[in-house]
Amino acid sequence: MSQTQPQQHPQYPPFQPPQQSPQQVARNGLGTAALILGVIGALSGLVPILFWLAGILGVIALVLGLTGRARAKRGEATNKGVALAGALLALVSLGLSVFGAYTTFKAVDDAVDEINKSVSDTKAKDTKPSGDAKGKDDKGTSDSGTSDKGDKPAAGKAMAAGDSVVYDDDLTVTVSNAVAFSPSEYAAGHKNGNHSYKVTVTVTNDTKKKFDASLLTADARAGKDGVTAEQIFDDKVGSGFDGSILPGKKATVVYGFDAPADAKNLTVEVTPSFEYDGTQWDLKI
Q1: Contacts of 174 (CB under 8 A, 6+ apart)
Q2: Cα 96 to Cα 41: distance, rounded to the nearest angstrom
Q3: Which of the residues in the chain have pLDDT under 70?
Q4: Which residues fall within 8 angstroms of residue 89, CB to CB, at 6 or more apart?
Q5: What is the pTM of this model?
Q6: What does each C-alpha distance from 213 to 121, 163, 231 come to in angstroms?
Q7: Quick check: helix, strand or coil at residue 154?
């Protein structure tokens, strides 16, 4: 009898479920840190004296914000908006830092100037009578007057031709007598029938800093009625001062004025600059 061989079935490996890749964790720390530092930096920038803190936090927040935004683009983080907000706040912090630094340094500079000015005024009071300015004629005699940065002579009296007024900072202004002259046909400011006069103004700078002579103004009135004497511009007459006068130097310029024919005097007022009061000279013509 033949024997039946048992059938063999193929062997299969045991069933294994598909393996899942581990989920990547979002790295949102840089964007969050940028937002926090940006907020603190912006608030610090609102106080000008804390400009340094706003600047430091602004730089750090900007770097973290840009890095966090780059991570979000690569899919490594999910807080792209937070990182962008942190970077924007970082820029605000830097802007406030610059403004705060400018404001703080300017305030300190102004305070130092005020202190130096107070010290200078105190020294001036110790060396000179307070508010005094002495008018000197060409011979060196004094025509007493008071001037705190250019007050007018005492008792409301004008200076005479050739007299000098010396201000507290040792700036000296001298006005000569009025000299008649004939303007050319191209002169401006002269009216037919009137008389023209030249007046020489000399500024001596004995201060410790240069003087901006271009700010000096000279005006005049003529006669007993004090009518305005128009300034004449003719060639080198009436050109005025230009530039600055260095310490220890002086400059001279000629002004021309147009006065009525019957005027007997010319009152010239010279103001060195807006820091000084004007001084008047009564000139016979």
Answers
A1: 162, 163, 164, 165, 201, 202, 203, 204
A2: 9
A3: 1-25, 121-156
A4: 34, 35, 38, 39, 41, 42, 61
A5: 0.47
A6: 23, 19, 18
A7: helix
